[in-house]
Each structure stands twice: as C-alpha cells, then as structure tokens.
Design a protein that fits this description.
Largest sheet: 4 strands, antiparallel
Oligomer: single chain
Structural class: alpha+beta
Number of helices: 3
Helix content: 10-25%
Amino acid sequence: MVRSLESLRDLDYDSWQAVAYREGPPGQSVVLRVVGYPGKLRLDHPVSLQVLAGRREWQLDDITLANPVLATDGRDAAAEFALDPLLDDLSNNRPLRLALPGVFTELPIPPYVVGEWRSLQELPLS
C-alpha cells in the first residue's frame, strides 16, 4: 500500500484527516478516505464529494459501503471516495476545495497535497 496522510482544517476550523491510498501495483485505483472525529458527526452514505478547482467541478462517488471494515463501523466517522476520476483530469497540482453536503462546506486542499495524491497513481509499492 502507498498512501498520503494529511490533517487539514475546514473553514469552520474543524479538523479532518485526508488519507489517499492505493493498494496493489501502479495502475490500481486510488481511494480518498475523509475521517472526522467519532461522536462529533455521523456521515450518511452514499453522498458524493464535491471537488472544486477554479471554475472546474467534480463529483466523486462515495464507495464507503464497498469497504467491509467501514461498512460495519458503527461510528460512521469516515467516508471513502473514488479519487481516480479527479486525478485523471488534473494536469497540475492546483489547490482544491472539497465540500461534503451536511458535513463541511469547504475543506481546502493545498497544492503539495494534490501533488502527493497525483503521485500515488504510479508510485511503486515500498
């Protein structure tokens, strides 16, 4: 597994973990896991993750229930999204803004994190 793990704050100053990871060889899908603090919120599934970059916008599919560990976790504090549609469409490490309806309205993603996410598609397993 290769991964990028970052703790980020939304515009309400709430903390979130953003974990992008790939299991298996280069070319396998990259997943983004967004984790809040248990007890502070409950995420209902499925809900698409909205990603904004300037005038561009993507809707990433919620794949949380496909992960047996998360599907049976009663805390409901994490969600997973298919990241490849976004990564395949990006040509540079531009800053992104994430929005998850009913959870947070804007979670800024700095360019260095976007660069880490993009590198996961081809990074060899360690």
